[in-house]
Amino acid sequence: MIGGSAFMNTQTNRQKQALATKQKIFSCAISLFARQSYENVTVQDICAEADVSVGAFYHHFKSKENILDEGYRLFDHESEDVWNNGHPDSPREAVRFLIAEQAHSMENMGVMAALQYFKNQLSSSEKYILNPDRFFYRTLYRIIDEAVASGILAGDAAVITEDILGTTRGLIYDWCLHEGSYVLSEKSLRILDILLDHYQKK
To answer: Which of 120, 126, 164, 202 could form a disulfide with 68 if both were Cys (CB 3.0 to 4.6 A apart)?
Structure first.
């Protein structure tokens, strides 16, 4: 049992190291996309920035395009870690917590990189951003559903969830159009409060 337990810990550590490498490659790629634009960045540029081999890059990503596909999955993984490390108990504050995390993620990557995400999802057949099974969607829906069930909010939980996500996606696009001239997280929370007030049970 001791040997088996040690093996499991080793595997877990390897998985953590692999994820850390993947996140490093991703972060460096996004940084380059923000500074030089997506079209001008090569896989070799990304590897040099991340200080990894080309082989390591292709171990984690199928192509440069795949970085953007994987970006939402990495965002969900990071959001889940942040959520599990502590979140508000109040349904309203829990929703604000998730949306703030989304906005801060966009702010951290910058306008140029955020634009690449939108371009990628508009042309992608997968549309991961709309996947109801992703952590971000599932968690937001669960909070809203519980708020409706407990009488805090009035309406259909799925509709409210989609209204929130559609509104925040629109705000990210507007923020990109304005070239990041305002604080996305502040405006996102302000508009979110208006939306939640609309659905608050009278």
So the answer is: 120
